Amino acid sequence: MKKKIYLVTGNHQLLISLKDYISLIEDFLGNDFDVIQSKNIKNSCINIIIDESSKAEFIKQINYSKPDTIFIYFLTEFFTQSKFLKINSFNFFSKNELVLLLIILIDRLEVFKKKIISKIKSIINAKLKSKISKKKEPYSFYDNEMVKFKNFLYKYYRPRYKSKIQAIFIKYLLSVLLFIYLSLKYIFTFQLMKILKIYFRFFEKFFLNPIKSIIIHLVFKNIDNFAFHRYMYQRNKGFKLIENRIDFYLCSHKEIYKKFENLYNKKIFFILNKVKNIQMTDKRILTISGENSHYRKRYISSLALNYPNNFPKFLKTDFLIKDGYGRYSINPKKTSSWKFSSPMRYILSIKNNEIPIVTDEFSDDTSENLYLRMNLNSINSENLDKNYKIFIEKINSKINDHNLDMKKIYFNVKNELELYFENKIQGGQ
């Protein structure tokens, strides 16, 4: 019977974003191990976690798991440190280090705001508890009081929403009416602490929260990729909180592998899917997918392409997941400052019988056997049609070399897992 390994996915919001990594892990280990997807961590078992450590609850699950629980962490992001300020993050290749300072400032203001609000609420609640009965007070405008207020109004009038804007307007109108009603009620009954509490809630909801949303929106709008950099910084912070609990690591990029070896004294293995050779197809089309970034928009506009493509569909979305494939895929890097190749993108194309084309220069050799390099001028109908058979022979030769490399790596990973099963996991559960 195959020994069980649990592939934990509960730290991610969307499983579709993990599709390629789940496929890689299942393909790589599936012949000798039973890889089972699980939303939660399984104690006293081997757990593989795909990189995402921004959630406090998930960090807590890892750090408070049983001592004999094994964690394998699949790294997906690049370790980076800003040149002058020496701030650690993931995927920060920009020269504008002030972005990181702004991110840290916003995060610290957020923590400060939460502490102040928590302190004020605790003071008010303590005063209230000493003066009122044990009846639970509503925490916000949408708890007990709002339900009572709505029920009272709906006896005489039930609004019908014709649009989302109207529904939002009615929602806020009800909040204002409830605020006025409770204010008058507490004033006439001389309940001073309740008046303070309701005024503070109103101020937080209608002033503090909107101002915060507007500031963040303006920052996101005017600084390219600010939201992405903030998210990556938070993920890096979370990773530092669990790194000591991880037994060993996997990754799908040599640059991550090299950087990790320099930073940490733990085992790491570089793995990628083995893939089948490409066959000839009549689907004469060149495709693109992924995030519709500013760089990729400019890249597409620079192509004087007279070959069938899915570019119009790509440009209409923020992130395109392909629903069809052709002979070729074009794979521009994410941003102008991006340094590394994207092997998972190329493997997805090959698995769907597409020849991955790359025109950018990268600082790594991770994917040399997974794409064909061309210059922009050679991406045209005449070249793509005339040399299609030659291109297939070239990429299949590279694929064969890639598969041999992965076969060698697999035996090392398998031996490592077998050792963990023998030494730490009782019964292979």
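^ that was protein a. below is b, sequence first then the tokens
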Amino acid sequence: MSWPALIPPSVLLCACAGAWTAETPPTIPPPVAASTDSPAAAPTKATAASAGYSFTTNQQLRYVYELKQDTSFDSAGDALAYSTIMVWSFVAMPTTVTSERVELGVTILAIKASMSGPGSHHEIDTAHPTSEAQKDPLFGHLFALDGAGLVVALDPRDGRVLSVQGGDAIAAAIAKRDTRFGPGEASPQEAQAKAAYSSEALTRMWGEMLALPTSGPQIVPLGPPFSGALERRWSGMAYTLGLPTGVDHLDLAMGREPVAVAGAVTAVVGKGSVAPANGAPGAAEGELAFVLTLTALTQPVVEKQVLHWRLSQAKP
């Protein structure tokens, strides 16, 4: 939940700065799971089913990652539903390999994205740029990620991600594409992109993608705008996601008065599985459903959110 989504699901809509128009729902980023442990934490104990990764420096690993987000809510007595699909193709190459640290050089090859709902349709493919697609108010900024690079450092013993670098360059490229402002004027996309592609946010996202089974429950911190964490429990190579025992909701807060948004996440139910291949991440799949209750300008909105994600290896 956050995964090889090269745009973390948790910032999927935040990264689309300024996209909340009359045709798009007042959705905020879903509370997708993030890193399994703090980057400073000690290695967790991997289960016998997954004895860690065994990368080699001659590997060239190509992946396809798909994220689908379905959002439904009631507005002025009407039931509305929106569906967003994003597909990333990327290649990962181990550049440093030791028993305790691996660095992966990641290059984003292409991104496809679509969003549909009442009176609204957006669709782009960075492999086939058009003038219209590059100006798309919801997804046009994704062309800035085409060919972008990241460096992902992880502990191969348990899949724990230590850091991710390269997000600053992505954020700068996104802000540069916003030509609505003159010299010296900061684009509002800049601050949003910096938060979406910060090292902390990307570390949480890749921590989910590379997570491996452990013998005990894993705490999954979510990051802003959510407070608290989810809990992952493994059974073999499969896991469940939910609120920690004794917790019935998570709070969230974003924005400032007079347009501050407060809310709560409830009814969290998730599951997934991983299947490493040849010592590297192989296939992974998961889903998460939850209810998001928001209050903005005193008007409550109740959203039902369903996320589904899938990672698969592609031929080089």
